[in-house]
Amino acid sequence: MATIAGNMAVDMQGERSSKPSKKEKDKKDKLAAEPSKLKIGLSDLGGMAAAQGLNEGWSYLMRVAGRASVDGFVAENNDYLQASFPAIGGLLWYLIELYGVGKAPPGSFKMGRMEAAKVLGNLGMSKFFQAIRSRGAATKRELELAQADAQKAIADNKVMAENLEKLKVALKESAEREAQLKRGGNGNGGTR
Question: Is the pTM of this model over 0.85?
């Protein structure tokens, strides 16, 4: 019986020594949890490509809708509509992905989705501010043209006012001559 107990003790010690230690297990888990640089790079590139594809696809759809717009609303606001979905959608997508991140570092696919969301939001915001700048420049050009037209109209009004005054003077002189003719004079001293 003592030999059996001794053999069992030796077997148990052998089983303990064949199991990995807690430190070794933690080290293996950490290495398995850390994504490789290749996975990170590929997920980032994939995310950027997906974001660019979504952005360009949405822009294409908005351009087609602008050409088909009957009332002109989509055509007139096409620049803002092209920027709306990528900017808002990218922000919401990123916030949703960020909310889903736990305590462990995210996997490569999750990181790729987060990268796609960030890039999509940035592309949308870039288009939005470009639309604002473009509209501002167009408005400035229209304002300059309107000011030039107003200055021309003011100058034309001044010329017309001068001509009107000349015509009033000529009308007054003509009325005086007509009055003299009616009184019996011919306008050259009263002799015929």
Answer: no
* End-to-end Cα distance, the chain: 170
pLDDT 10s digits, 24-63: 777 666 666 666 778 878 888 888 888 888 888 988 988 8
Residue located via tokens 């055509």: 75
- Where do the structural domains in the chain lie, given as residue ranges? 39-183
